[in-house]
Protein 1
Amino acid sequence: MQEEGKGKSIVTYAMEYGIYLGLFLTVKFAVTTQSTRFVALNVLSQVLLLALPFVVYWLMRRFRNEMQGRAGFSQLWLFGIFLFFFGSLLSGVAEYAFYRFIDPLYLERLIASVLDTLGTLSRMQDSPFLEVMREGLEKGGAPSAIEMVYQTILSNVFFGSLLSMLLAWVSTLRKQKINS
């Protein structure tokens, strides 16, 4: 994994560029959590979600340029996986602080709101499934702050891996068109 010349590995580049992705994910998380209070932030949250592939593609291009264009599909994909891992670690710190100290009841309120919405919008008003979920929530069934952060990191890495695979493929296609 060590590259010749500059002496940096893919992991080192992913750590450096992961700071940018982590800050982006932290801003997206902050906007998303505040969109429950300010409806106008819902639009911004969706825009940030749609901007994520462009941010990752930009970071992949910067990495490929640092490698003098020699980064192939597998290197770009691996870089993307590491990028999401390190970015998620950084945003996970902010998420943990929010869930644990700033608004400890946020998850419980969010789950209760989703259950109420399910009950009113669907034909499940008298569903035993919803009743069991409400009872579980009342008995402390909401995930803890660290469980939520762990779940977020895992899902970011999984979906980031899929996105990185697609973007690495697009990036290598574009590189092939430029070379031919």
Protein 2
Amino acid sequence: MPEGPASIGPLLELLDLAAVAVFATSGALLAAVKRQTLVTFIFFAVVTGVGGGTARDLLIGAPVFWIEENMTLLICVLAALLVWSLPTRFWKGRALLWFDAVGLAAYATYGAAKGLAYGVAPVPAIGMGVLTACLGGIVRDVLAGDPSILMRAELYVTAAALSAALMVALLLLGLAPAVAGALAALAGFGLRAGAIWYGWKLPAYRGGRS
């Protein structure tokens, strides 16, 4: 039987809540960019905040994390209300990208740890981290009519994979979950930050030789 979420540790649980808050904020920010109603702000915040984690929990056989308590959805609603109340200058520019980068790293780290805690093998656990980090943002972009991040060459999924893989590796090496989580999240965020700041990209397919 899986060990369950108690084996993850309280600090990683806090990381999960932080990731929900940041991703929910990124969803609301996109609704602000699109000049949507408050209802859409809340919807985008919820979908982005819980989308990846919901798919992860269904796949690993865990109780869906936001069903049995109120905190997660309240965080999403509060994030939407906060963005709705902020002056335009607070969310213009690259705010969406930076909030998304923080959420990406935190969620990839937590998702990988939760996969391991529920008995998932190391390589699939890395996949659970990537799924947790990326799915909510992908759904958000599709609903908003924006090109999916998967169709762009910039480092995004790669940054999530770095956080997830490092988390799995460090936990298997016996590092304390809190320390492993901090290192993994910082590594993924650093790679994503470089992609935002310096335009780092993966090489695109150029076709085979004729």
Protein 3
Amino acid sequence: MTIYEASERYGIPMKILREYEQWGLCKAVKKVMGAWKYDDSDLENLSMIMTLHDIGFSMEEVETYMRVLLDGENTESQRMRMLDEKRNNALDEIHFHEKQLERLDYLRHKIRREKSQKVIEQKERGEKA
């Protein structure tokens, strides 16, 4: 399957296919008449690359992860460390955004409280709200 067929059939952006070729990770890919030919193992690798991009890995992190993955069987701990680091960073971001939401909610509550206090004071003075 050519790069264009892989992109069309599996919805893989050309940018990612070109990255894959540039990294030289496609050892099983054969160049026929100037065009790369992808096999099932390449499609599995490309699926992993898409997943890594989707979960926030940078291009460099994807390349590193894929090189480690393709190095052999005893790379689980190294890959797990990479995933744990990405997960911890994502959790840190989530906690940061939770704190932002708490502050936003506090400010919104404060505005509502002040507004309702003004309405109460106007009613006590017999003014129109």
Protein 4
Amino acid sequence: MDNLTNPQPAAAPTLQPLLGMSLDQLQQLCAAEGLPRFAAKQMCDWLYNKHVDTIDAMTNLSLKARSRLAEICCIGRSEPVNCQVSRDGTKKYLFRKSDDPQQFIESVFIPDADRGTLCVSCQAGCRMGCRFCVTGQQGFHGSLSAADILNQIFSIPEFDRLTNVVFMGMGEPMDNLDNVLRSTEVLTAPYGLGWSPKRITVSTVGIIPGLKRFLDSSSCHVAVSLHNPFAAEREEIMPMQRPYPIADVVSLLRQYDWSGQRRISFEYTMFRDLNDDTRHAAELVRLLKGLYCRVNLIRFHSSPDTPFRTSSTQTMERFRDYLNAHGVTCTIRASRGEDIMAACGLLAGQNKG
């Protein structure tokens, strides 16, 4: 009876973000709302070239059109709520998840001479369960929309300095593939930013169905988190090895041509006395032999309560030299932003004020 006499106020309607919509989707929106078809191209220009943050700023749309769009849509942009700056110039930005403001995600801007790389997140937390990854320890709190993914790119002060985007932040891209593909389309399509796919790298632990779909749908670079070439040992630190064995992942990759512009790389975090001896290097050579690829060795970045320790510089260099000497191109990736928990595997999406 109380609910009848004291009705609760109706929830505010959820506004559909325009950011992340393709030209085709915007044309469908225009058709549904009685707007001229050419208005979709105008909106693309405002969204992706002029970077407006309000619908009212789309001044070549009629006032009536803007008023109607504002009733059902929003731009989908929001400023970062925090920024930490590393001693090496790396910046870590904190953003709210648009449909759950209590959840936060992080992205990392890495300046390097004339290059500016942004590492973006595609999920709040992650459900892959990798034992060495701080993000995985946070649990899974939902996938990001295409607007949330692109907002990380469009809403940082360094947008105009960006030369590359890597989907290597929080979350597993193949576990949120629809929105990752929508985002990469906007980044590369003529109606969007028009970037070359060579400027974008998408990582994965090896979710085979998603990876195959991605390879068939996109020309962006791919990075596979490998970390141990032995199946049983890899499964101990990466549970997704069980449903998607790394041998099967490599077998899938061999079906594609990597001699052109699209590249495949393997990320290999070095753990002391766990995956860093000659036995592992030799098995890695056997696993990847004949595949046109690169292995990036990554120094493990320690975090509280982890049992893992990083390999020494000497061990990493010896491992690198073994791979190069046996026909597998290998480099050691420079570590950036460790002092602000912005390095590989350290993103936690926590608002520390």
